[in-house]
Amino acid sequence: MKDRLEHNETYFIAEMSANHGGSFERAMQIVDLAKEAGADCLKLQTYTADTMTLKSNAEDFMNRGGLWDGISMYDLYKSAYTPWEWHKPIKERCDELGLDFLSSPFDDSSVDFLEQFSPVAYKIASFELTDIPLIKHAAAKGRPMIMSTGIATKEEIAEAVDACRAVGNEDIVLLKCCSCYPTDYAEMRLSLIPEIKHDFGTIVGLSDHSEGHLGAVAAVALGARVIEKHLCVGREIETADSSFSMEPSEFKEMVEAVRNVERAIAPATWDLPAREVRQREGRRSIYASAPIAKGDIFTVDNIKIVRPAKGIAPKYWDRLLGKKSPCDFAYADPICLSDEWLEG
Question: Is the pLDDT of residue 303 over 90?
Fold first, then answer.
């Protein structure tokens, strides 16, 4: 991750989440597809239903509205979680492929379990951003902290950042996020990215639940350095996350689009690229529009501003009119005169 960021390149995280659909084989397939699609990192979520919530169908514990309407929190997490015994083979496959590995822990036991895998960072999910004890516990491990900011106020983001810094961890990435699934473009508020970077002094990225890669491209143009997107084998395989996840070909297109944006907005000077310098010959200049003998007066009837730029620049037009020609010019000859003559 640090190599990408130090070279001012966008770091791509492919989020598996529940897209394995309970299949270990599919989970391993997603790891391979993440690498093929250009991801830098494969991300899991580490929890069990019991570490997330209480086993209850009381109204407080029921999802209402949205994708998971009518499903209890416990049942949703029980169906969506990634078995902890899968983490080791998934991490080993990431190592084989040269993919970074990280996960979102949801309680202290998840952090302690993940430590054995030396994750490249810990990712704090948006809904855990106010769990200050969890953030301190994870940050104290000394690994980079990536924190999503969906549903958070500015004050809550500040508290989370302060919690990391309170245990000596300054290696923080804040991901602009909207916790709506899928996210409508009008809900993304990407214009806050420069403000987040300025106000908190951290690297900024985007955890994106919108359709397509437009949001990612816009975010990078605004200064985002990390992009996180959910990745699935195919949306026809229904999981808790499939409806707002990218298919591998879409993820690859996003990576390619962002790499092009990086080239387009790379630090630059006013010196023109070599290919563009050659295009300067296509500008206008002053040409003879009729034969001109030495001593003839330059008039609108015998000179004209046209393409290409082989003659003197159009800015000399007024200075040229009414002057005697110092030499002969044939029709379509460029008017080429010295600076000394023009100034005389």
Answer: yes
